[in-house]
Amino acid sequence: MKNTYNLRSTAAKAITQVLEQGQSLSTVIPELQQKVSDKDKALLQELCFGVMRVLPQLQWFINKLMEKPLKGKQRIFHYLIMVGIYQLIYTRIPAHAALAETVNGAISLKRPQLKGLINGVLRQFQRQQQELVEQANNHISQHLHPKWLLERIQKAYPQNWQDIICANNQKPPMWLRVNQQHHTASEYLALLEKANIEAELDINHTSAIRLLNPCPVNSLPGFDKGWVTIQDRSAQGCAELLTPCNDESILDLCAAPGGKTTHILEIAPRSEVLAVDIDEQRIKRVKENLQRLNLHAAVKVGDGRLPHEWANNEQFDRILLDAPCSATGVIRRHPDIKWLRRNEDIDQLVMLQAEILDAIWPYLKKNGTLVYATCSILPQENSEQIKSFMKRHTDAALSETSTLENPGTQIIPEIAGGDGFFYVRLTKQ
Ligand SMILES: C[S@@+](CC[C@H](N)C(=O)[O-])C[C@H]1O[C@@H](n2cnc3c(N)ncnc32)[C@H](O)[C@@H]1O
Fold first, then answer.
1. Which residue has the least CA distance to atom 17 on ligand 1?
2. Average per-residue pLDDT for the chain
3. What InterPro entries does the annotation carry (predicted)?
4. What atom in ligand 1 is closest to the CA of residue 279?
5. What b/e string do you get for 74-99 counting C-beta neighbours within 10 Å, with b at 16 or more?
6. With 90 as the cut, is the pLDDT of residue 204 above it?
7. Is there an atom of ligand 1 within 6 Å of 305 CB?
8. Which of 114, 214, 370, 413 could bond 106 through an S-S bridge, CB–CB 3.0 to 4.6 Å?
9. pTM of the full predicted structure?
10. Which residues are known binding-site members for S-adenosyl-L-methionine?
11. Residue 304 alpha carbon, nearest atom of ligand 1
C-alpha cells in the first residue's frame, strides 16, 4: 500500500512520542519537520503545541464520544482524533478539510480500516460541537494543568495564581534580542518597520523587542548575519545581571543551546567565555549559535557537579549557572511540560541544583560574581534554594537589591510580557 504523506498523522506521531514515550516536543518536532513541506511546518507546530495546551479538554470529548478508548498499537489514532477535534475548535481550517485530512491520516498510518471510525467520531463531535464545548466548560477545570502542579502554583502564589495559569494557557509572544554590536534596539525597530513587521521596544531591557505577531526568523532583517536572536525578554535579564566585562574569564554553566553564552559575548566580546553543558547533542547547538553570530567561546561537554573534570583548576571572574529546572515558568512555550513532569521530579531537581551550586562555588574567584538562574516559578528551586545555599556558604553575599528573607528576583509569566524566571546575583567575600 502507498504510504501517503499526511500532516495530521505526523502530528499524531509527535503527540504519541510525547505522551506515551516521555519525549519532549522540542526534540520530536525538529526531527519530524524535516519530512514536512515548508508551508506545513508551522501547522505541525500549531497542532502539536495546541493539543498539549488543551489536552484535558480533548480527552474529555473523546471519553464522551467513544465507548472504548483506543489502546496499544491503536493509541496513535486516539491522538489523531484529538488532532481532528483541535482543528474544529481552535483553527480556521475549514471543517470539511480538517475532517478529510484527519481521516486520511489513517491511510498514511497504514490502517485504512479505521477511517470509518475516525470519521464517525469527528462527525459526531461536529454535530454536537456547541453543546459538548459548553458541557466541557461546566464539567472540567478550565485551568488545563495537572492537579499537582496547580496545587503547587496556588500554594506559592495565593494572590495571583490565576494570572499565572491564564498566561500559561496562551500562545507565547515572540521576543527578539538585538545584537548591540550591530544596532541599538531603536535602530533595529526601524529596520523592522521598513520590513512591515510590527514590533515594540521594551523599557526594562536595552536589547529586547516584542513582535506583535510571530514571524519566520528568515524574514527578520539580518538574522543570518547575527543582527538579532530569538530570546524571551526574561531570559535576557540573566546576562544583563551578570554584567560581564571584556578581558574577564567567564563560565557559562548549563549553557546549551547557547542563548545566554552569545548574549554574554555580545555584551563583552573580548571576554574569555567557557560554555559547558552535560548534553553532547545540545552542545552542538551552542557551536552553531556562536558561528551564526560570529562569536568565539571555548565549548565543552561536562557535568556541572564535577568541575574538576573540565575546569583545569581555573577560577572564574564570573559564573552564570542557568540551572536545569522544572521549566514551570515557560509552560506557554513548552505546554508538553505539563504532562511530562511529575510531582516527584521537583525534589530531585532541587537536589541537582544544590549539588551543582556547591560544586561550582569554589571555582569562583574572590570578589567574583555568580548569577544563579532558572526558568521555574517554584520557590523550592529559587528563593528557597538560595536561602539554603547562603546557610551552607558563609562567604556568599547577596547583591544589594536582595534580602536574606527574600533573595533574588522572581518573575511570573505575563501575557504580553516575559516568561517566568528567577535570578539572583551572589558575590564571594
Ligand atoms: C535551562 S537549560 C540551559 C539554557 C541555556 N543556558 C541557554 O540560555 O540557551 C539547562 C541546561 O542544563 C543542562 N544540564 C542538565 N544537567 C546538567 C549537569 N549536571 N551539568 C551540566 N549541564 C546540565 C541541560 O543539558 C540543559 O541544556
1. 278
2. 96
3. MeTrfase_RsmB-F_NOP2_cat, MeTrfase_RsmB-F_NOP2_dom, NusB-like_sf, NusB_RsmB_TIM44, RCMT, rRNA_ssu_MeTfrase_B, rRNA_ssu_MeTfrase_B_ent, RsmB-like_ferredoxin
4. 25
5. ebbbbbbbbbbbbbbbbeebeeeebb
6. no
7. yes
8. 114
9. 0.95
10. 254-260, 277, 303, 322
11. 20
Which long-range contacts (C-beta less than 8 Å, at least 24 apart) are formed by 357-360? 357/321, 357/323, 357/385, 357/389, 358/389, 358/392, 358/393, 359/304, 359/305, 359/306, 359/307, 360/251, 360/253, 360/304, 360/307, 360/319, 360/321
User: What is the C-alpha to C-alpha distance for residues 42 and 44, in angstroms, rounded to an integer?
Assistant: 5
Nearest to 235 by CA among 417, 42, 64, 94: 417
CA of 74 to the centre of ligand 1 (A): 36
Is the CB–ligand 1 distance for residue 166 below 6 Å? no
* C-beta separation of 58 from 129 below 8 A: no
Q: What's the 276 CA to ligand 1 centre distance in angstroms?
A: 8
* Cβ–Cβ < 8 Å for 282, 249: no
User: Does residue 226 come out as left (phi exceeding 0), alpha (psi in the -120 to 50 range) or beta?
Assistant: left
How many C-beta atoms surround the C-beta of residue 138 within 10 A?
A: 7
Ligand 1 contacts CB of residue 260 (under 6 A): yes
Residue from 240, 267, 277, 423 whose mutation best tests the ligand 1 pocket (most atoms within 8 A of CB)? 277
Q: Is the pLDDT of residue 278 over 50?
A: yes
Taking residues 203-219, report their average pLDDT.
92
Residue 203 has pLDDT above 90, yes or no: no
Q: What is the largest CA-CA distance in the chain?
A: 71
For every residue of 92-154, DSSP letters joined together read: -S-HHHHHHHHHHHHHHTT-GGGHHHHHHHHHHHHHHHHHHHHHHHHHS-TT-S-HHHHHHHH
Q: Domains of the chain, with CATH numbers? A: 7-144 (1.10.940.10), 233-428 (3.40.50.150)
pLDDT class of 36 with cuts at 50, 70, 90 = confident
In the reported structure, the alpha carbon of residue 325 is separated from the centroid of ligand 1 by a whole-number distance in angstroms of 9
Q: Extract the annotated binding site.
A: 254-260, 277, 303, 322
Burial of 29 (0-12, 13-18, 19+ CB in 10 A): buried
pLDDT tens digits for range 369-418: 999 999 999 999 999 999 999 999 999 999 878 889 999 999 999 999 99
Taking the CA of residue 161 as centre, how many other CA atoms within 13 Å lie in the half-sphere pointing to its CB? 13
Q: Is 238 labeled as catalytic in the residue annotation?
A: no
- Ligand 1 centroid to Cα of residue 279, in Å, is 8
Query: What DSSP state is assigned to residue 73?
Result: G
- Check pocket membership of 240 for ligand 1, CB cut-off 6 A: no
Can you state the percent helix, strand and coil of the chain, rounding each to 5? Answer: 50, 15, 35
